Amino acid sequence: MRSSGRSRAIRAPATGSADRMSTLRLILGDQLSTSIATLRDIDRQADRVLMVEVDEEATYVRHHQQKLVLVFSAMRHFAAALQQEGVQVDYVRLDSASNTGSFSGEVERALQRRHHDRLVVTEPGEWRVRQMMLRWQKDLGIPVEIRADDRFLCSLAAFAEWAKDRKSLRMEYFYRDMRRKTGWLMEGDKPVGGEWNYDRQNRKSLPGGMTLPRRLRFDADEMTRQVMQLVKTRFGHHFGDLESFGWATTRADAQRALAHFISECLAGFGDYQDAMKSGEDFLFHALVSPYLNIGLLDPREVCEAALQAYADGRAPLAAVEGFVRQILGWREYVRGFYWLHMPGYERSNFLDAKRPLPDFFWTGKTDMNCLHEAIDTTRRHAYAHHIQRLMITGNFALLASLAPAEVEAWYLLVYADAFEWVELPNTHGMALFADGGLLASKPYAASGAYINRMSDYCSGCRYSPDKKLGEGACPFNYLYWYFLISKEKQLRSNPRMGLAYRNLSNKPEAEIEAIVAQAEDFLENPGREAAQI
Ligand SMILES: Cc1cc2nc3c(=O)[nH]c(=O)nc-3n(C[C@H](O)[C@H](O)[C@H](O)COP(=O)(O)OP(=O)(O)OC[C@H]3O[C@@H](n4cnc5c(N)ncnc54)[C@H](O)[C@@H]3O)c2cc1C
Ligand code: SF4
To answer: Whole-angstrom Cα distance, residue 339 to residue 348?
Structure first.
């Protein structure tokens, strides 16, 4: 049920004492922090917290089953913890008979159940939901206060100020400003060690036979098992495996996962953050993005834990700087960037990309082993690490000119950490270059040689990364050159593409013709080999 748009007298009559104001405080599924602005001035006697599991949010894209379990189970655990603290919580389960299925409908029902003088909420992570909230005051006939989400290290106002008058918004400069502001890894106004960024040391492939850290995963408790059953029954047709669910659903467990990462993995994070290995889903990555994004962990505490490890000599500077940059730099930057460019950011299509998403993005059934591995990990864990997202699935989507809207819907639904404020800039801007360079200075396009250097995928593939054309040639090779050829109008003038275009112009005409013929033949039906599996 949606609100009609007109102000209505829907509120329950006042029952409490006349001088005590009652506030309804709505907490969304990605706002599971006791420090959330919504709760700040709560009056435990007079106020109620409203939490709702709604069908509209579970299905506007068909989220991975594990993502639904994570969010609903974490919500239930959070509500129980609040209740133990003496907070009155009005919790609406997905399968409650009268659930209207939408945020607006559930707020309206809560106001009918009990009198409240006002509604307080913290701004959401998605433009669409913010627009919905902005209508509530008028539609529901109650004062609505939308508070800033101050769980980030950079406010939206501070980001807008930083962006003002800049010709280009490069993350690296934002990050340096954030280092100066926080004083993290700084000696006076200079970066510790003399460099802002140690990525040159951070691009190693995994040595053969290296022992990888054991990862901390969590068994489902009774509450999570109940949610798993619910999700299986209602959303069993959504993408992804349910049984391998191993995410933390409470703050205490998320903190354990963070501590485990810091002690077992952080030291190796820098060196191997771009590496990929068959059958190894997590390597040295932190696995904390779902917790950060739903509020179980706070970005400040995550960065401070890494900084402490550096101070104690438990992790090298390059690893800690690399890790802190992901959160203080990238995560804060994409959030500011999203709100600065919305609405409408998602509508650009600079490279005029139109092809449909091949079926193997859903099944993982493809002879291209790198794609098979990245998609299979995604199916089993609602997770793939950054380089799999950017340089395997993202790189393929870019080179194959897949329609941004289809690719973005895929990324938004398959990952447990996917919320539009963070998914969209990463996919539309970083992976697909669909914004024409607002976010990235050049497309992240790579041939099979890069994938072969950074992974062991090619040794298990029917294609050869060394073969450029003809039977058995790695599709990433001819697709890379075809991408340069077919997008020349848009990309040749990009100064960072100069070398690539010089290399292209050295190719004999016959080779160009062969590249075009093989790439176009492949792109007619990129999933055709799946039929042979
Ligand atoms: C196409 C594409 C889509 C992506 N979609 C999402 C998404 O929906 N949600 C999401 O949280 N991240 C997204 N990322 C960023 C990144 O891949 C994930 O944050 C990371 O893989 C999460 O795993 P981790 O916690 O093990 O991260 P680590 O590699 O260990 O990094 C540590 C933390 O840094 C932060 N971080 C790192 N890179 C980024 C980035 N580019 N943007 C924002 N935060 C970053 C995350 O909070 C992450 O937990 C996307 C990247 C690409 C290329
Ligand atoms: S050969 Fe090409 S398709 Fe196969 S795994 Fe390597 S990069 Fe991927």
So the answer is: 16
Q: Which numbered atom of ligand 1 lies nearest the CA of 261?
A: 30
HSE at residue 225, side-chain half, CA atoms within 13 A, is 4
Ligand 1 atom nearest to CA at 390 = 53
Residue 141, CB-side half-sphere exposure with 13 Å CA sphere: 12
Pocket lining: 448 vs ligand 2, CB cutoff 6 Å: yes
Of the ligands numbered here, which is closest to the C-alpha atom of 472?
A: 2
- Element containing residue 332 per DSSP (H, E): helix 332-341
Per-residue pLDDT tens over the stretch 60-103:
999 999 999 999 999 999 999 999 999 999 999 999 999 999 99
Q: Where are the alpha helices (DSSP H) in 36-100?
A: 55-59, 65-84
In this prediction, residue 203 has a pLDDT band, given cuts at 50, 70 and 90, of: confident
Helices 156-163 and 171-182: angle between axes, nearest 10 degrees: 130
- Model pTM? 0.95
Distance 176 CA to ligand 1 centre (A): 19
pLDDT band at 204 (very low <50, low <70, confident <90, very high): confident
- Alpha-carbon distance of 247 to 229, in angstroms, equals 16
Residue nearest to atom 24 of ligand 1 (CA): 287
- What pLDDT score does 17 carry? 52
Residue 200 pLDDT level (bands cut at 50, 70, 90): confident
Atom of ligand 1 nearest to the CA of 419: 8
The angle subtended at Cα 64 by Cα 75 and Cα 373, nearest 5°, is 130
CA of 448 to the centre of ligand 2 (A): 6
Query: pLDDT of 309-347, one tens digit each?
Result: 999 999 999 999 999 999 999 999 999 999 999 999 999
Contact present, 281 and 380 (Cβ < 8 Å)? yes
Is 368 touching ligand 2 by the criterion CB < 6 Å? yes
Who lines ligand 1 at CB under 6 A?
285-289, 292-293, 326-327, 330-331, 334, 385-386, 389-390, 394, 411, 415, 417-418, 422-423, 426-427, 430-431
Question: Which ligand is nearest to the Cα of residue 258, counting in written order?
Answer: 1
DSSP 8-class letter at 86 = T
* Sign, Cα dihedral of 372, 376, 382, 388: negative
